Amino acid sequence: MPITTYQNLIGGEWLPARSGKTFKNVNPADHSDIVGEFPSSGAEDVDLAVAAAKKAFATWRLVPAPKRAEILFRAGQLLRERKEQFAQDMTREMGKVLAETRGDVQEAIDEAFYVAGEGRRLFGKTTPSELQSKFAMSIRMPLGVVGMITPWNFPMAIPSWKLFPALVAGNACVIKPATDTPLSVYNLVNTLVEAGVPAGVLNIVCGGGGAVGNALVEHKDVRAISFTGSSEIGSHVAQRAAATFKPVSLEMGGKNAQIVLNDANLDLALDGALWGAFGTTGQRCTATSRILLQMGIAKQFIPKLVERAKALKVGNGIDESVQVGPQVNASQIETSTNYVEIAKSEGAKLECGGHALTDGPYANGTFFAPTIFSGVTREMRIAREEVFGPVLSILEFDTFEEAIEIANSIDYGLSSALYTKDLNKAFTAIRDLEAGITYINAPTIGAEVHLPFGGVKHTGNGHREGSEALDFFTTWKAVYVDYSDKLQRAQIDNAE
Ligand code: UN1
């Protein structure tokens, strides 16, 4: 079969990279399946895209927000019609199972309808002036050209969390998709263009190796960068962006804990652990990567969890009966393998998995067996560092206070969960867990689009989703209207 070729979208035109170079996107479940060929772009392509976006911004910012929002409504409707095809494409390029890629597209649909509603709000504030016959208010203004660097694990949902609020607020966008999953961003952007986003308002520039990302981050005409990815790259992005005073929204790692107290509904906690740790093959920032068990239940909980993890069906996510798809690429397999070795050398007990799957149906892909370590202690690297794969650590604790302390003892702070029937402990955990998200009696994954999504500490800053997402893509203008017909000097004429 001929390989489909995709190009950059710049100023409404589909263009190859200036260098003429391309890269191939392969199916992680079957490397002989080439999903497509994409432009391997560089700084000169970014320059063109930013110039096109800057030009388009001049008129886009004047389109009334409710009209911009109508485009998002249409995009939401089109995404709904195309949901199945886009989910199939996403499973093919990224690997996660169909039920989950359908969920990923659904999250973009939800975001489209939710943010479209914001087009008729975009609330500002009014406040009394300290002077007579003077009116004071603050209004939201778009930033201009904004850059987005998006990850492969939620290849449509996460771009939608960034693009939709940016667009409704009146910004022009340049997006760089992850090189493992550009097709899903193409599907999203094509849909937006068909829904009516004008030429130049939305641009895609593909490419890896830092060339496109760095050029976007350093560009003097890019007003802000929204980044989701690893902490290592995020730190680099933040430092480079500082040179041109760009605000950076950072969504990075997690080492999310599910705490299970002795009084919990254990079956529910088991279901939550299994879904939180091995859903998306553990490749979510919100994935459960630590289970904290109170000593009274550890003995019965661990064997049940291990038995269920061993029974998970690993395979090509396009097969509806598969529960765990491949990891996205060989480098992720290497990371999982390395962390298994680290955990073993630290003295953790391997309960199941612990290796890549390479035989028979797995021979052409990047598969890793669901892995559980027990006997993990809080000092171990496996208890503190993000693996971003199907590798779960079990730690044990005595008191509730100790569990909170262990949960908080890491650098990350994205998601967290507590299983208990004790309402007082539930609310104490909500107050005391250092994380941007806390679930009670539910897994660490599964955030909804109308609530703010973000973390504390080394997880990053700011929020995607929720109306809070607009805070990053707008700036405030303070407006004073004096209708007294005389000079009124603030802080002077009205002083005591
Ligand atoms: C991510 O983990 O990178 O809350 C995003 C969730 C999804 C989004 C996850 N709605 O698990």
From TrEMBL:
UniProt xrefs under CDD domains: ALDH_AldH-CAJ73105
Residue span, Aldehyde dehydrogenase domain: 14-479
Matches recorded under InterPro entries: Ald_DH/histidinol_DH, Ald_DH_C, Ald_DH_CS_CYS, Ald_DH_CS_GLU, Ald_DH_N, Aldehyde_DH_dom
Pfam families: Aldedh (PF00171)
Active site: E251
Domain of life of the native organism: Bacteria
Alphabetical UniProt keywords: Oxidoreductase
Listed SUPFAM superfamilies: ALDH-like
Transmembrane intervals: none
Single GO molecular function: oxidoreductase activity, acting on the aldehyde or oxo group of donors, NAD or NADP as acceptor
Family statement: Belongs to the aldehyde dehydrogenase family.
Descriptive protein name: Aldehyde dehydrogenase family protein
